[in-house]
């Protein structure tokens, strides 16, 4: 069974997400205490992933002949302890990059 974590929103309110349980622990609690409150906000949890996406995008934009389009896809996993992390598939990180160059036309 997966656990639930509540991330407060910086503008007020909160978002509840399903998280994987921590291995080796068992939750013994009252029915009304099934949602774990996180320490940081939802926005703060996503900040590291946002920084990673920005760094990757900047790297592709700095190519000598940069692409006309960059599509960057990756899975994001939320944890109560670490916030947001780039999710993995199998043993590798889940990261997909698509670069596109348009054919130059003769003027």
List keywords for this structure.
107 residues; alpha+beta; three-stranded mixed β-sheet
Task: Give the tally of β-strands.
Answer: 9
Classify the secondary structure makeup into a structural class: alpha+beta
Query: How far do the termini sit from each other?
Result: 62 Å
Radius of gyration: 19 Å
Mean pLDDT, all residues = 77
Element order: H for helix, E for strand: EEEHEEEEEE
Strand share of the residues? 35-45%
Number of domains: 1
Taking pLDDT < 50 over at least 5 consecutive residues as the criterion, the unreliable ranges are none
Continuous helix count? 1
What form results from the Cα inertia axes?
Answer: elongated
Helix content: 10-25%
Give the strand order, joined by hyphens, for the main sheet: 2-1-3
Protein name: Trypsin-co-occurring domain-containing protein
InterPro entries: Trypco1
Offer a concise description of the structure:
By secondary structure, the protein is an alpha+beta fold. Helix content is 19%, strand content 36%. The chain is elongated.
Please give a structural write-up.
By secondary structure, the chain is an alpha+beta fold. It has one domain (3-100). It has one helix and nine strands; from the N terminus they run βββαββββββ. It has one helix at 42-61; strands spanning 3-8, 14-19, 35-37, 69-74, 76-79, 83-86, 88-89, 92-93, 95-100. The chain has a three-stranded mixed sheet, with no helix packed on it. A hairpin with a 3-residue loop joins β5 and β6. The longest helix has 20 residues, at 42-61. The protein is elongated. The chain starts with a strand and ends in a 7-residue tail after the last strand. InterPro entries: Trypco1. It holds the Pfam family Trypco1. Residues 7-103 form the Trypsin-co-occurring domain. This is Trypsin-co-occurring domain-containing protein.
């Amino acid at each position: 069974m997966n656990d639930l974590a509540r991330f407060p929103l910086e503008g007020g309110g909160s978002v509840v997400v399903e998280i994987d349980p921590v291995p080796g622990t068992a939750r013994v609690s009252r029915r009304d205490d099934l949602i774990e409150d996180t320490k940081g906000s939802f926005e703060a949890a996503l900040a590291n992933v946002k920084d990673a996406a920005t760094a990757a995008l900047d790297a592709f934009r700095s190519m000598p002949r940069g692409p006309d389009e960059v599509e960057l896809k990756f899975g994001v996993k939320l944890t109560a302890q670490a916030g947001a992390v780039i999710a993995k598939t199998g043993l590798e990180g889940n990261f997909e990059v698509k670069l596109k160059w348009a054919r130059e036309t003769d003027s």
